Amino acid sequence: MTTPAPVRLYDSLRKQKVELQPLVPGKVSMYVCGPTPYAAAHIGHAYSACCFDLIRRSLIFLGYDVKYVRNITDVDDKIIKAAAKTGQDPLALSRHFTAEYNVDMARFSVMPPDVEPLVSTHIEPIVKLTEKLIERGKAYAADGDVYYEVKTFPGYGKLSGQAVDELEAGARVDVDERKRAPADFALWKAAKPGEPAWPSPWGAGRPGWHIECSAMTWAHLGETFDLHGGGKDLVFPHHENEIAQSEGAFGDGTFARYWVHNGFLNFEGEKMSRSEGNVFGCGEIAAAVGAEAVRFYFVSHHYRSPIDFEFHVVKNAAGERTAIRFPGLEAADRRLEYFYVTLQRIDAFVAQGGDGGDGPVVPECEALVATAREALADDFNAPVTVAALGEAAKLANKLLDEGKGIAKDVKRRSLARIARDLRAVGKALGVLHQAPAVYLAARRDRLVERRGLDVAEVQRLLAARAAARAAKEWARADEVRGQLAALGVEVLDTPQGTDWRVADSDA
RNA sequence: GGAGCCAUAGCCAAGUGGUAAGGCAGUGGUCUGCAAAACCACCAUUCCCCGGUUCAAAUCCGGGUGGCUCCUCCA
After folding, report:
1. Which of A64, A370, A387, A506 sits CB 3.0–4.6 Å from A59 for a disulfide?
2. A460 CB less than 7 Å from any atom of strand B
3. pLDDT value at position A394?
4. What is the dihedral of CA A136, A137, A140, A141, to 10 degrees?
5. Nucleotide closest to A493 measured between CA and C1'
6. Whole-number Å distance, CA A328 to C1' B13?
7. Which residue has the higher pLDDT, A189 or A312?
């Protein structure tokens, strides 16, 4: 068992890169704020999930044993509201969207969490924690509600940089006579008619928004654990309140040892919002460009940077939306095609003549895994890792094309090694997990569909061109090539025969 | 009003003190019946602007300008 490589990561609390020193050497406990399932997941949910999945996969790649907990907030105002509209049971509604969420995340190669706790099944630790906070003088009950008294926690604001008095000065904090101070927040809310409720020492009610994460980390990871993640938008108030709750209950220095936040996903520089009409569902985008292209696009950017989606809506003469195009994602898909074509070439070569057995490889083969380890250990730098994948693929193509002056078995071993490493590093990023033929066929189908190509017609033209070439009627063959090109079909003559691909440069 | 982020080539994007990764597009070339794919070469004396610190700054500090986010249970 090798010792896991030391990892440096940017800690949002310390506001600098620090070395990750897990509580238990070699093991990392990780908690990520999951969704509140009240509607279908959009692509922003996927980005956040992918960022933390990248961190998880990177740690595994580097040799850590990771315990990954991602909660489901299945008791919440938004769920209750959505359920009321259709007369559904709120828990049934959230169960439905939770299942859908997990299907969507799986599309983007997000690994299922080791533990996926629900608020509805963690009422007991939530009540216990709330009682503890009352005992310790951090919280007070009022008319069946329980509030956290922010001024009892001196460290309040250390994560977000918010100052309590500034918050009070702001006009946007809830005003409620039952609260002692405007910044105090609810740990427990008294039941209202028609809402889900559980018994508690303060009467029937349900948990407030922030308490569940403090309770669930406690239940599954203990009073102190390693990484806590979430979207940047959760820094305040959610994570600030979690700290107040957990440290308030268990003492300073408990709770998350490192905080990690991912950047936001914007559309054309604008925040995603219903009113902008730029909220896209996971399925919609996956269908348009392929889910793996989305993941590849994600890992081509650093998780802490904001990421931008370009898109334009295609309309017909009547002004109706006929399609949505995502140029950046399509470019990512094109790049992904390069990797899969390269893998396919290597696979075919190795399948035909073997992998060369044990022995030396060309030295440049060593670079990919070495670079990936270094880059991922430095704040999970996926873009640099992607660049290393590119270098390795280039080397493979070079070996396949020529490989002169290299012993045959060295060449075979090197190529087999590159294919293996491409997949291993790809796994750390959540890409290159498909069989090349499967990916390439799906991509071609997608492009055929986008261009509205008649495949039978394409086949007919290809056959006509093949006949012309067999007769060495070059002018005729080129004429047919031109016809195919006009349709958007590129013809690829190879020693193994003629293949074709759909041009993606336009249309 | 308070807190914070970002600004790198035509485009996307790494790099947070040591002399600008990578990709797309573009140009030339090898290969090819012609192409495509693949590969090779070229492609930012410079990192929004102005000052400062330093032997050394895209990186640190101060001041601008432009864009964005949080303080509204929005990932």
Report:
1. A64
2. no
3. 97
4. 40
5. B36
6. 12
7. A189
Q: Which of residues 61-100 of A touch strand B (CB under 7 A)?
A: 76-78
Q: Cβ–Cβ contacts within 10 Å for residue A27, how many?
A: 14
**Distance measured from the CA of protein residue A477 to the C1' of nucleotide B67, in angstroms:** 53
Answer for A384: CB within 7 Å of strand B: yes
Structural tokens at position A503: 């041009």
pLDDT digits (tens, 9 = 90+) for A19-71: 999 999 999 999 999 999 999 999 999 999 999 999 999 999 999 999 999 99
ipTM: 0.95
- What are the structural domain ranges in chain A? 7-262, 330-429, 453-502
Would you say the C-beta of A324 is within 7 Å of strand B?
A: no
Of A259, A228, A200, A206, whose CA–CA distance to A94 is shortest?
A: A206
Q: What is the pLDDT of residue A285?
A: 92
- pLDDT value at A236 more than 70: yes
Q: How many helices (H) and strands (E) does chain A have?
A: 16, 17
**Structure tokens, A379:** 């704040």
Q: What CATH number does domain A7-262 carry, 3.30.1540.20, 2.30.30.320, 3.40.50.620, 1.10.760.10?
A: 3.40.50.620
Fold of A330-429: Four Helix Bundle (Hemerythrin (Met), subunit A) (1.20.120)
pLDDT band at A272 (very low <50, low <70, confident <90, very high): confident
